[in-house]
């Protein structure tokens, strides 16, 4: 069999895969959005006025391969010190309430006991990021970003949304987040600026 016949790849230009040229293959697979990874560890003395100073923009990527390059070269969540946060947000959205994309939004979040979650948190955070960059959400445009927080007693996973007034949209996002993370627990939705004083929080 000739060498090309053994490779189940169309010989035209339609598909370019690693089988065409294993040595020089360098095609990257674009993501629908560009994403920026941020880190902060504000410590105990920070408050809402000083908090932004500790926020560090780490890197922006827009391909599947670059995502893995970043993921494989940063510290794992389970090794981060107490009070650290990773924030993965769409490029152009700062991971703060004050950003125009976030200011009318809210977050789905869950706190996971640290001692019971230590072995799982890296996989949970990875699945959370993959759900975002892989566009797993029906209302994709509503997703601003995701955060993992390391605290003394718990890890917190949160997904920030662009709006906070449409329960159907929020519930769809929360349900997908719960499924994609594989977390068996209750997520709660909170607007960043609570204006409603009555009613139970939305949960999934
Ligand atoms: P947090 O880390 O979201 O809450 O915010 P947590 O984990 O319940 O509190 P912690 O003390 O255990 O870390 C902690 C504090 O950081 C807030 O009370 C604010 O002072 C500040 N902060 C956090 N965020 C996300 C923002 C923000 O978006 N904007 C501003 N101005 N301050 C923030």
UniProtKB/TrEMBL annotation:
A GO cellular component entry from the record: eukaryotic translation initiation factor 4F complex
UniProt protein name: Eukaryotic translation initiation factor 4E
Signal peptide: none
Coiled coil start-end: none
Keyword line: Initiation factor, Protein biosynthesis, RNA-binding, Translation regulation
A Pfam family: IF4E
Keyword Protein biosynthesis: yes
Domain of life: Eukaryota
Stored Gene3D superfamilies: RNA Cap, Translation Initiation Factor Eif4e
Recorded family membership: Belongs to the eukaryotic initiation factor 4E family.
One example of a Gene Ontology biological process annotation: regulation of translation
Record has Oxidoreductase as a keyword: no
One GO MF term: translation initiation factor activity
């Amino acid at each position: 069999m000739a060498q090309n016949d053994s490779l189940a790849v169309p010989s035209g230009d339609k598909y370019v895969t690693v089988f065409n040229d294993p040595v020089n293959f360098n095609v990257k697979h674009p993501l629908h959005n560009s994403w920026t990874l941020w880190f902060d560890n504000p410590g105990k003395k920070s408050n809402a006025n000083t908090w932004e100073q500790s926020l560090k923009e780490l890197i922006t990527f827009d391909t599947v391969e670059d995502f893995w390059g970043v993921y494989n070269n940063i510290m794992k969540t389970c090794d981060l010190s107490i009070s650290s946060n990773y924030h993965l947000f769409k490029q152009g959205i700062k991971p703060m309430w004050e950003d125009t994309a976030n200011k009318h939004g809210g977050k789905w979040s869950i706190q996971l006991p640290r001692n019971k979650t230590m072995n799982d948190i890296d996989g949970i955070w990875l699945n959370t990021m993959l759900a975002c960059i892989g566009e797993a959400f029906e209302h994709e445009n509503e997703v601003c970003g995701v955060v993992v927080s390391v605290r003394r007693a718990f890890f917190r996973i949160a997904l920030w949304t662009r709006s906070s007034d449409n329960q159907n949209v929020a519930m769809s996002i929360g349900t997908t987040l719960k499924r994609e993370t594989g977390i068996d627990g209750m997520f709660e939705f909170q607007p960043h600026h609570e204006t409603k004083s009555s009613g139970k929080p939305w949960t999934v």
